[in-house]
């Protein structure tokens, strides 16, 4: 299985900025305060927050996402999305944050958050089979995931730029639980209405098995998106400038 995701909106490295004066600062490792600030940033940032290096991220415009699921799997698909949108990230709500201590080099952190729904929408091409059903088509895809509980584990490192110390994510891993995924692919089988309706119905009736097969690499792609957004913030402002100095470690 292979996945490639290329981001349009968040590919540039941010220049050094000053932490916004109207944002609360926390003590190092103060989980309650950091959760409060993170949720406040999300509430302000859907249309961009340049002071923190964040682009417009709802919708987040993405260049491509390729998922290839093959081998002996009952789901054997090649899905290619181009110039599509990821919608719903502005509804992210953090419920637990561990880490962000004074020592952040080679440190482990954990974020837990909820997204009521997110949606992938845009041009697609698909080829392969699901269980015994052959699948082929190209058109507009609409994939919606409902009530998403996400845990993201991070390994961070210290990066020095122009004499300033910044935090960046070295590795990340995402654990994901969802209540349901809905699939809608237009123009399957060259627009054959009967086959398109039958195939979409099959996808939605068997969503759990399909989701189980494609989720490792789909969620790897989603993790890379969150990692890029977080890195944008921490590449914009030196780490220590985000916290109250003299606070706890």
From TrEMBL:
Keyword Signal: yes
Family matches, as InterPro entries: Haemolymph_juvenile_hormone-bd, To_sf
GO cellular component assignments: extracellular space
Signal peptide residues on this chain, from the entry's feature table: 1-16
UniProt record, GO biological process: circadian rhythm
Highest rank taxon of the organism: Eukaryota
Keyword Signal: yes
Annotated keywords: Biological rhythms, Signal
Family note: Belongs to the TO family.
Name the UniProt record assigns to this protein: Hemolymph juvenile hormone binding protein
Organism (species): Chironomus riparius
């Amino acid at each position: 299985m292979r996945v490639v995701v290329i981001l349009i909106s968040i590919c540039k490295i941010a220049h050094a900025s000053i932490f916004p004066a109207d944002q609360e600062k926390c003590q190092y490792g103060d989980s309650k305060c950091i959760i409060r600030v993170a949720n406040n940033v999300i509430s302000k940032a859907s249309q961009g927050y340049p002071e923190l290096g964040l682009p417009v991220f709802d919708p987040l415009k993405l260049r491509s996402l390729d998922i290839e699921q093959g081998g002996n799997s009952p789901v054997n698909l090649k899905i290619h999305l181009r110039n599509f949108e990821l919608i719903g990230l502005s509804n992210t709500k953090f419920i637990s944050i561990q880490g962000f201590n004074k020592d952040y080099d080679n440190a482990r952190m954990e974020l837990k958050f909820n997204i009521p729904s997110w949606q992938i929408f845009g041009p697609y091409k698909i080829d392969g089979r699901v269980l015994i059903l052959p699948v082929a088509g190209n058109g507009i895809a609409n994939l919606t995931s409902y009530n998403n509980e996400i845990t993201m584990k991070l390994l961070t490192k210290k990066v020095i730029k122009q004499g300033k110390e910044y935090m960046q994510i070295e590795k990340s891993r995402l654990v994901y639980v969802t209540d349901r995924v809905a699939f809608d692919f237009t123009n399957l089988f060259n627009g054959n209405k009967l086959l398109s309706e039958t195939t979409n119905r099959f996808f939605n009736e068997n969503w759990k098995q399909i989701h189980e097969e494609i989720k490792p690499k789909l969620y790897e792609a989603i993790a890379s998106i969150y990692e890029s957004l977080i890195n944008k913030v921490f590449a914009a402002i030196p780490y220590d400038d985000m916290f109250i100095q003299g606070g706890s470690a």
